[in-house]
Amino acid sequence: MPRLLRRRNLTRLFAVGLALVMVSSCAVRTDQIARDPNTVRMAVNNWVGFEASAEVLAYILREEMDYEVQLVRVDEQPSWQALDQGVLDVIPENWGHEDLFELYGPEGNGTVVDGGPNGNEGVIGWYVPAYLAEEHPEITTLEGLKENTDLFRTAQTGDSGEFLAGAPGFVSQDQGMINAFDLDLEIVYAGSEASQITEVRRRYAEEEPVLFYFYDPQWFQEEVDLVKVDFPDYYEGCDADPEYVDCDYPVYELNKIFRAGFVENDDHAYRFLDNWQWTNSDQNAVAQMIADEQMPPSEAAEIWVNENRDVWEEWLPEGYEDRQKG
Amino acid sequence: MATVTEPAGATSTGTGSPKGSGGLLRNTWVQALAVVAVLVAGYWLTRWAGGPSWAGSFPTGIGESFMAWLDGIYAWIVANRNDSPLFLYFFNYVSVGLGSAVVLINQFLTFLTWAGVTVLGVLAAWRIAGWRVALVVLATFAVFALTGLWNESMTTLSLIITAVFIALLFGVPLGILAGRSEGFYRGVRPVLDFMQIMPAFAYLLPFVLLFGIGNPAAAVVTAVYALPPVVRITALGIREVNKGAVEATTSLGSTPWQILTKVQLPMAKRTILLGVNQTIMLAVSMVVIASVIGAGGLGDAIFQALTKINVGQAFQAGLAIVMLAIAMDRVTGAVGHGAHTPDIPEKYRMPLLGGGLALVILVVALARLADLGGWPRDWSVELDKPVNALNDSVEAAIGPASAALGTWTQTWVLGPLNGLLTGSPWWLVVLAAAALGMVFAGWRAALVSGISFLAIGLLGVWDNAMDTLSQVLVATVVTIALGVLIGVLMSRSDVFAAILRPVLDFMQTLPPFVYLIPAVALLGLGPVPALAAAVIFALPAVIRLVNDGIRGVPKGTLEAALSQGSTGWQLLTKVELPMARGSLLLAVNQGIILVLSMVVMGALVGAGALGNDVVLGLAQNELGLGLASGLAIVFLGLFLDRVTQGRRAPRA
Questions:
Q1: Would you say the pTM of this structure is higher than 0.90?
Q2: What is the SS3 string spanning B530-558?
Q3: Smallest CA–CA separation between B494 and chain A, in Å?
Q4: Which of A165, A222, B409, B458 is least surrounded by CB atoms within 10 angstroms?
Q5: Is residue B40 part of a domain?
Q6: Do domains A31-121+253-325 and A122-251 have the same CATH topology?
Q7: Which of B307, B407, B608 sits opposite A47 (nearest CB)?
Q8: Does the residue B440 lie in any domain?
Q9: Which residues form a coiled coil (chain A) (predicted)?
Q10: Would the pLDDT of B503 be above 70?
Q11: Is the confidence metric ipTM above 0.85 for this complex?
Q12: Is B517 close to A1, i.e. CB distance below 8 A?
């Protein structure tokens, strides 16, 4: 008896569910999520320089142009995915990622647009502390490093030297370089940039050797004295095979990536972000306030904005004042 | 007189005989030691033979093709997200709906202004749970405001409301079905087991894929993560309803629907609310982790602080989460117990409700007139500077010593254990796992253990899994040792227990992210700080269980032993610990599962191995690698869970 009843209930439930689907049967695309046209949604990847750019842009958009700004903290790759899905509008600082551009750009499914350079230049490389380079001057060359990998041995890596990798989300070709240059090194994953910096800071204080993945612009570069290891320059295609990379990282001309729909809307926020360009030293000025002086990011942005009116006034699009009145 | 204590001990421990008296237990340990000895011998033989290919790690061929297959699925989803009917008519509906729900709830909370939210929350808490809890809720709002994290807290709150709502929407009906049908219950139980062992981080990847970045995926993943307790406990509640009552109503000719709504649900109400409470607690912990996939709020605030290595700021946000968790726990707990509810006569209830609503509306209207929004950031108290100063001075004081301890642990404990597990022939390790299952928990567990290890090999992550296993084993041993020690001390002194309890509450709800970075600064990067964090995370549950177990030993038994002139040590080792054996076993089991749930978190500070691949899979969109590693963690969990559950009946 109960079994029968339950089955009848189930059938009824199914019928109601089906009816609901029929009634509401219009296709939903992910970019139809509830969105306020006055809100700009910006990716913030997990490094302070990026945050500095995003906070300054957000401050101007909020205070001068009367927009709401939502800063969404995600890793590099997922933020592309988010543009594709329509939950973000812009990545203000992008490092390379040609493969993703192929996937989502005009050649792929056409959901993102390259917004051109943002004026910052990015360098990735292998770094050692200056005290180590002084003690072993040859270590910043490929040959010298090859002979001295035993300097970097730790309890964890045993007979090989340790190479301290960056956060898992970052662009990397370290294993390919280790293979191609035949270095006796083992990659240790710091797991996050915060723990990598903490570890380097600890060794720096003890003047212990350390060899690690790092980049510039980065606020930590101001706190410690680092020397970049020289590798043969990047050339077109040397990083094609990730298992064998016989060159250094390229110098990245950092660019902006927009959601295609955001560009099509062509409102003041888009034009402003499209106009935006600034230098590495602009970015570092803000990043340092955030990281070294432990200032809240929005406050650091405010200070920079107040002091550099002439720089950012050029980014404001024509007619933005009308918006504010409306 | 001696015979008085003996039988009491034997009957209350139920399974197995107490330590020292029987041959069975000693036998178990001897057998286990023999298994380990064989493994070690195998390892040395392999080394002596120069590591022939038939005695290496598991071949990775099958695993690699499995990962490639998953990556293929990923590519398909990216290409078809806005074309395939599966997405257009299902997943996208869900994600758009949920994403919008979170936004709407958040806007509603903003509309109420901080004054309105506070009045509403405190009044509701008072009505449901009495004035003490209302004070806790008030304190919680005060922490939100004074840490300058009001808006972040409201975002987190909206996410939790959405996620808990979904979890209950699906969880309660599933629980009712499981409570009424034995077959359904049996079918659903392994799924729930699986869900509870799967590490929180490993959930993120597939859900990001299906529901996108940000709030929608965060809401779904939080709901799914928080689902199991409400299903389990609702089923339990329905089953426990007095059979007599059900039969009486059946014989009166009630329909099953009437039986459910008039008898079973009302009688199981309190138990079901306990499940709701557990679900909310899990949701609070998951919401923090979901900030990795772009959910905003307090979790995001912690993450932001950590990228700047600002431990003080992370602590502030962590404190807000702890308060949120405690407040939600107290409110729902009070609903479950029904205690402390203000005693209001029937006729005043409606006017009171009306008055309360009117008050809230008045406050909101006034606040909106005064143009209040979120709590102004200027009115906040800065906790971060003193916390940072404290952190720095601790680092300076014990830094070198702790770093040496870290290196020692790596060289003498973790390194050799890892070498043993990865250096032995894979089939010997599989056999050893099965044998340990057999020794501790019978042939069923042996089968599960063997299959788990085979599955890990087939997933293609053998070496990493062995690395992770060695870390988990070491962390568990430390956790159990410390947990038993502190638990025994806690059971000895009521004062100590009273002091320790809030500390344990705090440790259990503080998001582990907060103490990961100090751990690196003290112990140096690598598996050791990850172990330390795992121990901190798992310890409270173990301490509580040990304490409860020992305190549960009947007073009469203790007095009998004392009257015979037992010393304190004898009392502990011969009477109390053996009699609390059930609790101790449960403590070991819980300790392992909690340590395991920290594997992925530990990868954030360099633990490497499986956890790192889960994080890597998430950050680099490598679905295959991430998911295979996540599954391997589940299989490790299955093995450890089955072995430590012993011969007891499976969990309810």
A1: no
A2: HHHHHHHHHHHHHHHHHHHHHHCCCHHHH
A3: 40
A4: A222
A5: no
A6: yes
A7: B307
A8: no
A9: none
A10: yes
A11: no
A12: no
